[in-house]
Structures are given as structure tokens and as C-alpha cells.
């Protein structure tokens, strides 16, 4: 299975909300970008698909952490 880089939300590197992220979310986001870059250097195959899946899981974990911890900014009053 081949997944185009544009199909993954990590294409532009770290998310635009990087400044307001917690250190855990930053770490997860950084690991996701690294995992995706490593995957794109691999030849097509199962290992590459697994590496891309890892990047997606890490990025989802960063987004969930932000959602659950409420670090995206104060609610409008």
C-alpha cells in the first residue's frame, strides 16, 4: 500500500499550533514528523506502510492530547 505524502496531515512539518502545545504534544508532533520523513526514505513495501502508520498514530496522539488538555487557547467569552 502506497500513501502519498499529501494524504497525510504532516506534510508541512509541525502543526501551526506549535507555540501553544504542551511539551508532551510537542514531543509527539516532532516524533511524527521524524517518522514520516524516515518512511519517505524507505522503498515501497510493508515496512514503509508501517512507518507511515506510526507517523499517523503519533500525530493523532498529539492532537488528542491537545484536545483533552485544552491547550489550544481560551474559549471565547
Q: Can you offer a commentary on this structure?
A:
With 77 residues, the protein is mostly helical. It has a domain at 20-69. The protein has helices at 23-41, 46-69. Helix 1 packs antiparallel against helix 2 (46-69).
Helicity, as a percent range: 55-70%
Hey, roughly how much beta strand do the residues contain? Answer: under 5%
Order of helices and strands: HH
User: What overall geometry do the principal axes of the alpha carbons give?
Assistant: elongated
Beta-strand segment tally: 0
Overall mean confidence score, pLDDT: 75
Distance between the termini: 47 Å
Work out the helix count: 2
Could you outline the blueprint of secondary structure elements for this entry?
Blueprint: H1 23-41, H2 46-69
Short description, anyone?
This protein is mostly helical and 77 residues long.
Characteristics of this structure?
disordered N terminus, 77 residues, 2 helices, single chain, 0% strand, mainly alpha
Amino acid at each position: 500500500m502506497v500513501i502519498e505524502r499529501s494524504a497525510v496531515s504532516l506534510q508541512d512539518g509541525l502543526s501551526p499550533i506549535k507555540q501553544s502545545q504542551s511539551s508532551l504534544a510537542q514531543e509527539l508532533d516532532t516524533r511524527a514528523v521524524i517518522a514520516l520523513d524516515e518512511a519517505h526514505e524507505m522503498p515501497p513495501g510493508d515496512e514503509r506502510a508501517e512507518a507511515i502508520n506510526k507517523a499517523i498514530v503519533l500525530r493523532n496522539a498529539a492532537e488528542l492530547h491537545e484536545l483533552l488538555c485544552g491547550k489550544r487557547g481560551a474559549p471565547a467569552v
